[in-house]
Amino acid sequence: MAVNIHVYLFDTLKNLKIEIFIGLVVFFTFNWLRRVKNLPPGPYGLPVLGYLPFLGSEAYRTLHNLTDKYGPIFSFYLGRKLVVVLGNFDVVKEALSNNKIMDRPKNPPNDLLPDSTSLSVSNGLIWKEQRKFSVQALRELGMAKSKMEDFIQAQLNMLMEEIDSKKGNPMNLDQLLLPTVSNVILTMLIGKPLDFKDKDRLFLNKMLQTMVVFFRPTRLHAYFPSLRYWMASLKIWGYDQAEYYMDKFEKFIVEQIEHQKKTFDNHNVQNYIDSYLLTLKTKVEKVSSFSEKMLKGNFQSFFSAGSTPSRATLEWCLMSMLRYPEVQKAIHDELDAVLGKDRRPTWDDHLALPYTISVIYEVMRHNTIVPISMLRCTSSRTKIAGYDIPKGTVVMTNIWGVHHDPKDWDDPFSFKPERFIKDGKAVKPQAFIPFSYGRRNCPGEDMAIIMVFLFFTSLMQRYSITPPDTDLDIKQVVGVAKLVILDNVCLKIRC
């Protein structure tokens, strides 16, 4: 009798567990399928995880394919977050011009620096105050002016000395471009570059190489933020390395701030930290977003966003010269005709070099260095393209998709620099949005274009670039920016 009771209880508990499991599946499935009326169409994905497992390593291509199926605007869930994807220029223009789609979502993928916030992750009046200050400060420090060109020329001199020392032999150009380009940004932030062999410079190189993949807007921690700490503890998918480098990067930033405090002079503002410290001292409003916590975050945002995409753009420009030798020859011919072999290019020369700058634009379109822009979210219920979008919805812009839309680009998968030339001048069509669109686009757009132009034209004026053999092995890293690794190329001084 006792045995039968135990068997009965065991079977009852077993059946109860099955019923609970089925109930939970039904509950989550019901909630998953219960969508707001008049949402954009889109795939359902899986309970709990949503469509996240299906995005793949090149999510921008997956999103572009879904645009072909569902239209230029569609929706799905990533984790428990409703996401609306913008896939062509018309919906991007409408959505990113909407004041109700100006915010950043909570726990954005680039917010990994301990105990900090920044203008890139802030919203409302805080974002407006920090962006206005930062853009003005960087302009006064030389962004888009001749002073910044001096920073760039100094780094170019170092870079060319290193390249010349290789005497045309195969080299890892990536290892040189990384510190060179980011040293320009570092000079704006702390007032000086770091020697290539400096221990802090070596750390920053490794940090940038590591963190590029963690700032990607389709990373797991953007939709399951609490998992980030568990994955770091369990050393899953490199999250322990991300924590390590962000902790160490915070210490580096704090050291720079403390150093600037000791040498601070109200009448001699030398860099972004100085400018921020001056504002902290003189700000009289009772309510202000200025703080050292914000300064740390802004430093991280400008350093990361200024270093990696600019370097990636330059590397794709050089890779395109390897892929299209006829384009390299045309650039050499234009540079020789306008500059000769000796006079270094300046930003003022860009108007006289329409083909060269059109090549840069086509590289930025064809490869789309930042394929998915930083995420936005709705601050209140709104409409996009006639669809109802609830408050708190994440808005994802597939810039790569916009740049490969046949509606705006003839033969979009072909490399055609001439598409940016009209009546002998370089032009930028509306659908060309490598820095995103609207009031919340990248604040460093002008600085990035000038940097890439000066680096690229200077290198092309002096060198021809070739692969060491006939096989061109293209290695890519896809993160917040799409990088190509130039680890085996030859740069030879032109005769």
TrEMBL record:
Keywords linked to the UniProt accession: Heme, Iron, Metal-binding, Monooxygenase, Oxidoreductase
GO cellular component: cytoplasm
Organism of this sequence: Trichonephila clavata
PROSITE patterns, A to Z: CYTOCHROME_P450
Family, similarity comment: Belongs to the cytochrome P450 family.
Residues holding heme: C442
High-level lineage: Eukaryota, Metazoa, Ecdysozoa, Arthropoda, Chelicerata
InterPro entries: Cyt_P450, Cyt_P450_CS, Cyt_P450_E_grp-I, Cyt_P450_sf, Cytochrome_P450_fam2
Protein name per Swiss-Prot or TrEMBL: Cytochrome P450 2J6
SUPFAM superfamilies in the cross-refs: Cytochrome P450
Gene of this entry: Cyp2j6
Origin superkingdom: Eukaryota
